[in-house]
Ribosomal protein L34e (Thalassiosira oceanica), 124 residues
Amino acid sequence: MSFEFRSLKNNMADNRVTRAGRHSYNTKSARIRTIRTPGGKYAAQKIKKTTKGPRCSDCKTALPGIKHLKSSAYKNSKKRERTVSRAYGGATCANCVKMRIVRAFLLEEQKAVKKLLAERASKK
Ligand SMILES: [Zn+2]
């Protein structure tokens, strides 16, 4: 081994990592990310699979503002990561809640108008 080659080898950072856990293959469920530790070494970190997250109960779109976690992980998450502070927050999207409110309001208005008309008809 020549001197030049040895010095080159010593200067090269060892960026290889040992896979975390016992899984040997880089499959969809066992992906790793290489991270640099404070000591300057490289280590493997497991990447968790992402989920589709909670959906709106009416239109089935992904709810904004809510983390996409596994259902078991919601138990240990903060409340602000699970919900939004609104009626039906974390279950129904804002547009669908707005529609529900408007619909309920219009139904009540219709009832009031019907009652008024019935009163007028009975007076005559
Ligand atoms: Zn919706």
About this structure: The chain has two domains: 1-49, 50-123.
